[in-house]
Amino acid sequence: MAALPREPAVGLGWAAIAGLPVYKYEKLELGGGEGDQCAVCLAEIRPKEVVKQLPACTHLFYSMKGASMCGCGLTGRVRHRSYSEQKKPPYRNLPSPASNMEVAVRSVWAENFKAESRLLHQIAPRAQHVALNVQYPGCVFGHGNGRSHCDLTAEERYEVIRANVALLRPLQVGIAVCTNDGRRFAWEFNLRGFDVASPKHARDPRSVAYLAGHGVDFSRLPRDGIDGFSLRWLLRDSGLIRARPSWATFTGAYHVAYFVTMMYGEKLPESVDDFMKMARELIGRQLYDVKRLAREHDRSCVGALSNVVGKLAAVPPGEGISKSKPAGTGSMMALLAFEMLEKKLGADMEKYRHELCGLQVV
């Protein structure tokens, strides 16, 4: 199982790079995965282009470029400062606090990805709480024996999750951040890779219709969406992972499963224990499911995320809950609910770490 890549700090020497074999790239069709990219310049590698491959991490790069930027644990001679030793840059030109949640969610496409990346680089090192929401085109697999989802074991639920995540491509990733000085930001990253016009891309038509009615622009995703590699690189390089904040999600089994797949760039492992180990290595021990916490706080605090947020009175007075940005608004609502539950539950919350609704609990 692959370990989380370390901070870009070391690399191969030029002699070692020159000695790596050269290949003509051919994309492997493995059930809907995205193409490879150069680990140095992040450009998409096209068929027949000449590349080299790093032996330890298997990342590809154009043969005329160096491998010193690939942070995958290669042995090197230079020691860089650890993340905790680094001085955090000052805030610069941050946007003013938004007056409502719809404005607060920043919709990100390829055209504004660089600008939003610069903002996230300022915010990420100060992240105290992060909430995650991933939108995907439904589920097509269920458990074959006809039993209810509630009657399945965690391993059986994981089999269903793993099969669906392997086949269905993510559409959006919502990331909401609260910094250590109380500022809140939320991004909705629109991903390239799913084409609603392609019969090869699996989906649940009812889920697609629901998401289209709630703001997902399916026609724009293949043209203007962000590739998963660039987002993966941003989340690692920005310091969001290394800051080790508390992470929250709502009914989080699928959200975390998609996030783990995206951040490691590989399929989910076969067992639920190995999956949870990957999740802990990726985002640390402070992972909470808001639905689980809310139920422990108040047995009547159930239902959809909007119901839980309303029951907790987590949204500031006078601010509505937008439905036009599903992943971004979902992450922002999960963040607000988590912060409220943290105050209410206190230290009792710790016992529910890494218990995901839809996996270990229902």
Q: Could you walk me through the main structural features you see in this protein, from its secondary elements to its overall organization?
A:
32% of the residues lie in helices and 12% in strands. It is of the alpha/beta class and 362 residues long. The chain has a 6-stranded mixed β-sheet. A 3-stranded antiparallel β-sheet has the order 1-2-3, with no helix packed on it. α10 (290-297) runs parallel beside α12 (326-345) and α11 (305-312) packs across α12. The two termini are 28 Å apart.
Rg, Å, rounded: 21 Å
Strand neighbour order, sheet with most strands: 4-7-6-5-8-9
What share of the residues does DSSP label as strand, in percent?
5-15%
Main sheet: strands, sense, barrel = 6 strands, mixed
Total helical elements: 12
Contiguous low-pLDDT stretches (5 residues minimum) are 4-10, 28-34, 65-86
User: Helices and strands: which structural class?
Assistant: alpha/beta
Question: Could you give the count of β-strands?
Answer: 9
**Helix content estimate:** 25-40%
Q: Taking all residues together, what is the mean pLDDT?
A: 82
Run of helices and strands: HEEEHEHEHEEHHHEHHEHHH
What general outline do the C-alpha atoms trace?
A: globular
Q: Whole-Å distance between the termini?
A: 28 Å
Give the helix/strand layout.
Layout: H1 14-18, E1 22-24, E2 50-53, E3 60-62, H2 101-104, E4 105-108, H3 113-123, E5 127-135, H4 154-167, E6 172-179, E7 184-190, H5 205-213, H6 221-224, H7 228-237, E8 246-249, H8 253-264, H9 272-283, E9 287-289, H10 290-297, H11 305-312, H12 326-345
Parallel strand pairs: 4-7, 5-8, 8-9
Antiparallel strand pairs: 1-2, 2-3, 5-6, 6-7
